[in-house]
Structure formats: structure tokens, C-alpha cells
Amino acid sequence: MAAAKNQAAFLIKAGTPLEVGDAPLPTAGPGELVVKNAAIAINPLDCHMQDVGVFVQQWPAVFGCDVAGKVYEAGPDVQDFKKGDRVIGHAINLVSGRPQDGAFSLYTVIPANKAAILPDAISFTDGVVVPFAIETAVCALSLKEPGVAMPGVSTPALGLPYPSLENPAPSLGKTLVIYGGSSSVGSMTTQLATAAGIHVISVAGAHNFEFSKQCGAAQVFDHKDPSLVEKIVEAVGKSGQAEFVGIFDAIATPETYTHDLAILAQLGGGHLACVHPPPSEVPANVKAGMIFAVNDIATPVWKDYVTPALQAGKIQCLPPPTIVGKGLEFIQECLKKSKAGVSATKLVVEL
Ligand SMILES: NC(=O)c1ccc[n+]([C@@H]2O[C@H](COP(=O)([O-])OP(=O)(O)OC[C@H]3O[C@@H](n4cnc5c(N)ncnc54)[C@H](OP(=O)(O)O)[C@@H]3O)[C@@H](O)[C@H]2O)c1
Asked: Which residues form the Enoyl reductase (ER) domain (predicted)?
């Protein structure tokens, strides 16, 4: 059998197109897996990394967060995975800076505690939409104490329970508003929150109401509706739940912050968990924070939940992938499409 050869899509300099070239074949250290990627997915973060080199620690850079494929090598102490296992995983070049930890490669190193077996019935191109979004969702929902997202910005601490495999999950009597219910992060957070027994009211485009309900939202409102704030406040009031937790804002723009703060003002405050730095000034009854989606808080979910939940259909591989092409060369095209904006889909490249 021919020796395995690796290639990666390199960013040589911020603001330039990715260049595909030969890369060293990585090896698995303690607690690591090398995955032979069959599919990778694109996230908006990748566009920022390409444009301005944010989070890049080492040039040329190889980044990307989502992989699906087969285990090529398991680290010496890894018990839960073996060579040949079908897996999905969260690649963490974002924090490590090491090129071998970037998804945009034929072979990628991922931490074994950010991987899960992908059931045979689920294709790699479907499964690859899950990893980064699910870790982000856990960080949005389940941190108990505020940590540091970036200098001067703390993480949110909603302290909500992990998702359950019970169907349906017992109600917690809590309502959470998810702004951006059709986005990758918003839809996965809707799925996990619902699976934790939380009543979700979401905000999405009118054409994505059914999609957001498929993810578990009890009610969905149009982000273009001029009466959005009033409608959300009314829906929370009539939800029949004992507690309003707050808002997870998966869009986090000046416009969404205006709506968030108006909703929170009318509902007596609550959490405001954001995917970007929150508004600089918030009232005393609003606990605002920014998620940072690489966190060991997700380890129990990776270890005990992802595979059985995928198997049982408790996690659906949503939003569905749009497969842009086969080969590392298509990543650049995906980045261009991602910058143009997507709606209720995740851009995916097959390898
Ligand atoms: N801090 C972190 O750790 C972290 C982690 C992951 C992601 N992020 C950030 O989170 C954001 C979302 O990422 P993603 O991958 O989920 O994005 P995405 O799937 O590419 O987002 C596309 C979706 O955004 C929705 N949208 C756009 N404007 C909206 C608005 N005003 N109100 C409601 N929905 C709106 C669109 O909804 P319609 O088509 O229905 O209109 C569309 O479905 C990005 O900015 C990303 O950089 C941060």
C-alpha cells in the first residue's frame, strides 16, 4: 500500500487566497486522534481568519474547525477510539495555533475528547455540520461560572443542564429566546436547549420558520418584523413557563443588540449570551457575555451524548449541508460563498 501523503489548504498571508500544497503527515500525541478527513465544513470564523489573520499564531496557517472522517491513528493513551472508526470532531487550531490542528487538510489532529463516533447511517457530509456548532451551543447554555472569552470580556454563565436523551425531555419551566434560529449556531443551540427541556422562542427569516421549528423552537418570529420586540415579549409572557432565562444572540449585530436590550428591559432583565462581544453598556439586571467555543464544558456532551443522540435522532445534522465540491481546492470557493451569506445551510467540502 502506498504511504499516506498529506496536503493542506494554506493561508500564506492574511487577505490572500488559500493555496493547496503538500503538508507533513501528522502523528497523534497523547489524548489525540489523527483523522483522515472525508468532509470538512466552513464557518464564518474561517472568513475572518483568512481576511485578517485573527487567531493565527503560526504562518503559513491551516485553520478550519469541523471534520468528519475515519480515525487514521489514535494517540497512545486513547481508549474510546481506534483506527478505522468513523468520527466527527472539533479541530482546535483556533486555540493551539498548530497547522496540524486545522480542518482544511487531508489529515487533521483533533483532541479525542472533542470527537464522537458517527453512526453508520449518517454520511460524513451530514455529520460534519455538527462539531463546532455543538460545542458553541454547550458553551452558550451550560457554563455555570463566567470565564474569560477575550481580554475584558467574560463568558456567559446560563448554568442550564446538559441535553437529555429522554424523548421528550422533561420541562424545566424555563424560556430562552434564541436570536438567529436558522443559523448553524442558533439552530444547534435550539436543538440542545430543547433536548434539555427548555422552551425556545426563536427569531429567524420568515422563510425559515419551519426549519427552526424542526430544530425544536416552540414559536418563531421574523427578524424583519417591525413589531418583533413586542411579539417576543408577549410570547414569553404567554409561554406558560415559570422563568425567563434570557436571550442567546447568535447574530450579535448592533440591530440585534437593540432588540435584545428592548426585550430584556420589558421582561425584567436576564442573560444576554452573544457570539461576539456584547454591548459595552448594559443595565444592572442584564448579565451579558460572549461565548468562546473551545471549552472543556463540552467534554461530557462529546463523550456521552453526541453518538447516542445522533443514533436516536435527538440531534439532527442541521442545518443541512450544501456540498460545494470535492477536494481541498473547493475550500476557497466556500469561503467566498460564506462571505456572501448563507441561509439555513452549512457549506461543506468532500475530500
Ligand atoms: N464566539 C464564538 O465562540 C463563536 C462560535 C461560533 C460562531 N460564532 C459567530 O456566530 C455567528 C453565527 O455563526 P453561524 O455559523 O451560525 O452563521 P451562519 O449559519 O452562517 O448564519 C447564517 C444565518 O444567519 C441568519 N441571520 C442573519 N441575520 C439575521 C438577523 N438579523 N436575525 C436573525 N437571523 C439572522 C440567517 O437567517 P435567515 O436566512 O433565516 O434570515 C442565516 O440563516 C457568526 O458571526 C460567527 O462568527 C462565534
From this structure: 15-349
Indicate which CATH number applies to the domain containing 23.
Answer: 3.90.180.10
User: Is 308 within a domain?
Assistant: no
Using alpha carbons only, give the angle 303, 108, 57 rounded to the nearest 5 degrees: 105
Answer whether 0.85 is exceeded by the pTM: yes
How far is ligand 1, taken at its centre, from the CA of residue 116, in Å? 24
Q: Which domain holds residue 25?
A: 6-129+320-350
Residue 2 has what pLDDT?
A: 79
- Give the mutation target among 47, 63, 185, 258 for probing the ligand 1 site: most ligand atoms within 8 A of CB: 185
Instruction: Verify that 160 and 257 share a domain, yes or no.
Output: yes
Ligand 1 centroid vs 284 CA: distance in angstroms?
27
C-alpha–C-alpha distance, residues 128 and 49, integer Å: 20
What torsion, rounded to 10 degrees, do the Cα atoms 183, 186, 191, 193 define?
-170
* 155 touches ligand 1 (CB under 6 Å): no
Residues 6+ away with beta carbon under 8 Å from 210: none
The model's confidence at residue 162, banded by pLDDT at 50, 70 and 90, is very high
Q: How confident is the prediction for the chain on average, in pLDDT?
A: 97
Residues 6 or more apart whose CB falls under 8 angstroms from that of 341 comprise none
CA dist., res. 169 & res. 194, Å (int): 7
- The single residue listed with the C-alpha cell 482546535 is 92
Distance 181 CA to ligand 1 centre (A): 8
Give the DSSP H or E segment for 153.
strand 153-154
| Long-range contacts from 167-171, C-beta under 8 angstroms, 24+ separation | 167/312, 167/314, 168/197, 169/194, 169/195, 169/196, 169/197, 170/197, 171/197, 171/199, 171/241
Q: C-alpha grid cell for residue 234?
A: 408577549
